[in-house]
Each structure stands twice: as C-alpha cells, then as structure tokens.
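In the current project phase, we have settled on a layout for protein records. One protein thus recorded is set out beneath this paragraph:
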Amino acid sequence: MPYGVNAGSPGQYREVSKILYVLMCFFFGNLGVHRFLRGQVGLGILMILTLGCVGIWTLVDFIISLVKLGSYQGDNFLFDQNGAWVS
C-alpha cells in the first residue's frame, strides 16, 4: 500500500504530512515533488519539464499550502484520489 493512502474508507484519500509537503514545495517545488506526494504524477512531470513554469507555479503552490496550514486540524493534509484538497 502506498505511503499515506487510507484504504477501507468509502472515499479513499491520501494523507501527507503538512511539514513534509511545505518543505518539499519550498525546496523542490520546481521539480514538482509536492505534486507527486499528492498523487498528481502528470502535473509533477509537467512541472519538471517547465521548471515549475519558471517558479511562478511553484510560488503559487507554496502560498496555497501555507494558507491551507490553518484550515486543517492535525498533522496531515488530505487529498482525494485526483489530488484535490479535501476540506
């Protein structure tokens, strides 16, 4: 079973540590590592090829992750099967 995937619940979701996600986005954002953590392999590859759209896409993802820090209780972000934020 892949890291952070909770199977057995009706709506499967992926749990990713908040700290890990924000650090990966900050340090390796241009390589799309945080998108791979979310399960969005295609977008991760696109970010590698465009270097995170020369940093703009990476900056937007980093700011969104910082804003989302306060809206999630606990230590993990939750993503659905498509990699979208679960609220």
Summary: The beta strands are 5-6, 13-17, 76-79.
